[in-house]
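Interim report, section 4.2 (structural modelling).
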Amino acid sequence: MNINTLNLNSKVPKGPIMDKWRNHKSTLKLVSPNNRNNIEIIVIGTGLSGGSASATLSELGYKIKAFFYQDSPRRAHSVAAQGGINAAKNYKGDNDSVYQLFKDTIKGGDYRSREENVYRLSEISSNIIDQCVAQGVPFARDYSGYLETRSFGGTKVSRTFYAKGQTGQQLLLACYSAMSRQIVKGRIQIFNRHEMLDLVVLDGFARGIIARNLITGEIEKHSAHAVVIASGGYGNVFFLSTNAMGSNASAIWKVHKKGGLFANPCFTQIHPTCIPIHGNYQSKLTLMSESLRNDGRIWVPKKLEDATLIRNSKKNPEDIEEKDRDYFLERRYPSFGNLVPRDVASRAAKERCDKGFGIENNETKEGVFLDFSNSINKYGIEKYKEFGKYDPTIIEIQKLGKKVIESKYGNLFHMYERITDNNPYNTPMKIYPAVHYTMGGLWVDYNLMSSIPGCFVIGEANFSDHGANRLGASALMQGLADGNFILPYTIADYISKYFIGKKEKYNDILQSKEFFYTEKIVKDTLKKIIHNNGKTPVDFFHKELGKIMWEYVGMSRNNNGLLKSIKYIREIRNEFWKDVYVPKSIGNGLNTELEKAIRVADYLEIGELMAMDALNRKESCGSHFREEYKTIDGEALRDDDNYKYVSTWKYIDNKSIKDEILYKEDLIYTFAKVQSRTYK
Amino acid sequence: MKKLLKFKLKIWRQENSEKIGKFKTYLVNNISPDSSFLEMLDLLNDKIIRNKKETPISFDHDCREGICGMCSLYINGRAHGPENLVTTCQLHMRSFSNDNIIYVEPWRAKSFPIIKDLIVDRTSFDRIIMSGGYISVNTFGKTIDGNIIPIAKNIAEKSFDAATCIGCGACVASCKNRSAMLFVSAKIAQLSFLPQGKIERRKRVINMVNKMDEEGFGTCTNTKVCEVECPKGISTKYISIMNNEYVNAFIF
Ligand SMILES: Cc1cc2nc3c(=O)[nH]c(=O)nc-3n(C[C@H](O)[C@H](O)[C@H](O)COP(=O)(O)OP(=O)(O)OC[C@H]3O[C@@H](n4cnc5c(N)ncnc54)[C@H](O)[C@@H]3O)c2cc1C
Ligand code: SF4
Ligand code: FES
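Predicted structure of the assembly:
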């Protein structure tokens, strides 16, 4: 590994933070409406970020080509978001403000995000809610008809807007409708069941992509004036995660290999409230929304013997008396309690399970309770009083209380029961942390442009807003902010500088050497996979990689483990290229194994970079917990003097991952006061 | 440890939209009752791939959380299998008895052509939404504050309930007429409940209903199977709401 200290130009505008975005906008160049029709933009992904970008850019008059691997934009992974979306509206009168949202986000990210980006996000947050309401998103309302909110971890205000446990679905459907309206007008051309396999860079500018039609197997060339990557996160490196099965790192990884810097690859968020793993047949982990922590209390037994009895089904959680329960979050963090941020909650659960207090009867004996009995009681009594009745029986209270809980989280409880066969209204849920979100991603400047001119990156695919740890309900916010309200301005600036008034023949671009060369490389790789004389299915390698990643690059990391992981990843990678077997499908048509193989090949590289980045960062911060760097109470110990930077990695052509060069973008905080992070 | 299960599977294999398909029999064993239906198919595929004799079974899926609407499958003749209010990815093997024979087929409807094996093309749904399933507000503009349009809690909830449709197509697949009424009516109801959506309601309902017919979906004869098979419990009352909207669109 080489370390280089080149200054990266983040293009953050000058001036007071409150004025930066407004002033910057006034300096950005415009593209006049009659020119926009001649400009083509490729957007990879139709989640909240890509979908909103496609809709908005096409409304403005640009021609959009939208690529995604599902059959319909409505199924992009954003659909799965359960909890909600933040905005600093202060509708609840709890003294929320743009500043407060900014402060919580910066602090939650452990001072490893770019201050100016976060401030802009907080400023825009309110517009997003207004926009979504106008589009017909059925957000939760109170009895008087006004918008309802709830709280998420890491904050002391109620600023999360939601639509039961389906916020992502409702927001995505709005986005998809906005797209649909433009598709029918012919302004957006959709390429469903298409996967981007490489980026084409011409004279230093991103000018197109190579994509594979997943139905016919055909390799296609597509050119454009700019390429927008909105392909989501790379959490599936871990095999088991809360991400959709098709989520992949291929698009961002190929951009990286074409020169796009990769920032903070080691920052992976582990979400504290997922359903624990129960068997080795399992293909995926399911999240239980963080919003449940509003009403659920997290605990494990105080006594080791109780934990053992529970694991062996000899005792029920209901049988453990109050005094024998350890509400470890409330105990350790009295001022935030169950609503501490995700990294803190996850580590605290791991700490208890490592000590033997885990309650789930699985191979690893990992799991803690999320208990709703208190809330059910509380709400039951409240409801009873509302009805003007007294002396309710316990059964009556329970019934009313459960109704309230059902109206808040009904579909999540249903999902939990489906998966585990346990009824969470009657017995506490079992939860354990799982891989959820990746804060790292392609490096972008303030204009959301990667280090390759003309290649923009938005949503979870970029790195900029969440630092070392994302606070709940802020990914949806970022996706829509990027796509609806930021990119349309900044991309116009780029286009006006390079393409307006320039005459170029379209076919010339598609016929250029670079297009043919990139296409050939893609085809060669596919051939190599298909004609490999191996015998082992793709999933095997993916699972092996996942185990290594979880063990050594998961919730906590240390020097030796990371070194080991790098060694093991390389071994698995070698093995993969030697022994993978992908059935050749006749007629070269749909071949799901081939799709997986391409993705896993990329994971096998990005995994190594994640471990290298974790090794380099000799401090603990946010989701990156290095066991060597902790306080006496076991909390993360940051080292601002040496590590207050974004680590960005540059791939060197034709060299291996270990030869990547590290550049640093120093993080300078002029507005936020950098403090140690405590939730006590 | 729970008792592991074994099954005989009869699975529809079809190479592509042109070729003729047929059922093939597969045996699976050591299946945990806690594994999902798709995880059981994963296991079978692993075996098929290692055998190298045929290509693995293709089926659609993505989130495996019951929310993206990507998974499909007729299982023993029922869309999404034997349980109510469940998508195939959330169906678990504990719903079947040991040694059962399970028939697995793609969804059959003229408007959902088969692509391969168990995968069908549901883009006709997208085209219906394109014909008017939206509120025509631009996304880059400055809109008014969200709280300027109060919406009564019960109205917002009614709209939300309709909006929970995941666009899976089980309603079409289970209907003997292959009608898409439940899907279309859910969208129409969601938007027409909200003040924002009322402005375009006439145009919307006419366009969407016409498009539905054009795409070759059948008519509704009120058998209500769609409601039974819908994994999200979308109610057929929305169909009457849609019919009303449609009639009113011509009166006013
Ligand atoms: C279970 C779950 C719950 C969550 N809950 C919340 C929440 O309550 N609040 C919150 O703020 N955030 C939440 N998140 C996080 C949030 O949902 C995501 O970070 C966000 O939706 C990502 O949006 P995106 O637009 O960046 O990408 P995605 O929505 O992931 O979309 C990616 C798109 O890219 C396409 N694509 C990917 N690779 C390729 C390729 N190679 N070629 C072509 N197309 C490609 C896909 O088809 C898809 O359209 C949750 C995440 C999960 C997993
Ligand atoms: S109405 Fe129900 S069955 Fe039909 S598409 Fe929607 S969710 Fe699926
Ligand atoms: S895979 Fe998403 S709903 Fe079944």
